[in-house]
Amino acid sequence: MKISFVWAEDKNHIIGKDGKLPWSLPNDMLRFKNITTGHPIVMGRKTYESFPNGPLLNRLNIVLSRNENYKVPNSVVLITDKSQLSEYVKPDEEVMVIGGSSIFEIFKDDVDRLYLTRIDHEFGGDTVMPRIDYDKFVLVEKKEGVMDDKNIYPYTFKTYQKKIN
Ligand SMILES: NC(=O)c1ccc[n+]([C@@H]2O[C@H](COP(=O)([O-])OP(=O)(O)OC[C@H]3O[C@@H](n4cnc5c(N)ncnc54)[C@H](OP(=O)(O)O)[C@@H]3O)[C@@H](O)[C@H]2O)c1
């Protein structure tokens, strides 16, 4: 399986605040939806609980928790270790790791592709993206975000691919 990261961060690599996103950026939500739909998504229990409307549609939602009795609906998969992923994901699938911080940390050495939204603004927050060694990646796509009355911060969509050693 191929592992990808999908996330948005601010100037200081902040990704979360009080269990939520520190910003509202509907255009990024749309990009997130487009990138992840049809693929398995892997997330930490806290990120899963941050969804206001429950599991995300049209994607297999896989939740990591150390609590094997954590209750999820039938449509959602609970795992307690990343080694269990292969039971639910086909070998040729692109698995979208969507955070939070602790889950990105777990998959840091496995990730092949990075879908980053860089928001050019400083937000206060309590959750930070783990450090990524960008020397190991090549930028394959870069797109400046469109700003409007609902998307009020400057942002850039970037896609990186792991270099082949
Ligand atoms: N900007 C973005 O792109 C983005 C993306 C995702 C999340 N976020 C934000 O980030 C924050 C949440 O991130 P977070 O790092 O605090 O939490 P998280 O990674 O979403 O979830 C943490 C939980 O994952 C489980 N877990 C962690 N390591 C594990 C391991 N080795 N094995 C099994 N289970 C493990 C534990 O669940 P149990 O406690 O149940 O054992 C842990 O409490 C929120 O504010 C959210 O909005 C932002």
From TrEMBL:
Domain of life: Bacteria
Protein's UniProt keywords contain Protease: no
UniProt-listed PROSITE patterns: DHFR_2
Pathway connected to this protein: Cofactor biosynthesis; tetrahydrofolate biosynthesis; 5,6,7,8-tetrahydrofolate from 7,8-dihydrofolate: step 1/1
Reactions mediated catalytically: (6S)-5,6,7,8-tetrahydrofolate + NADP(+) = 7,8-dihydrofolate + NADPH + H(+)
Entry's EC annotation: 1.5.1.3
Coiled coil (residue ranges): none
GO biological process, one term: tetrahydrofolate biosynthetic process
Domain annotation DHFR: ranges: 2-162
Keywords in alphabetical order: NADP, One-carbon metabolism, Oxidoreductase
One GO CC annotation: cytosol
Gene Ontology molecular-function annotations: dihydrofolate reductase activity; NADP binding
Pfam families tied to this protein: DHFR_1
Entry similarity comment: Belongs to the dihydrofolate reductase family.
Biological role: Key enzyme in folate metabolism. Catalyzes an essential reaction for de novo glycine and purine synthesis, and for DNA precursor synthesis.
Name assigned to this protein: Dihydrofolate reductase
Species assigned in the record: Companilactobacillus allii
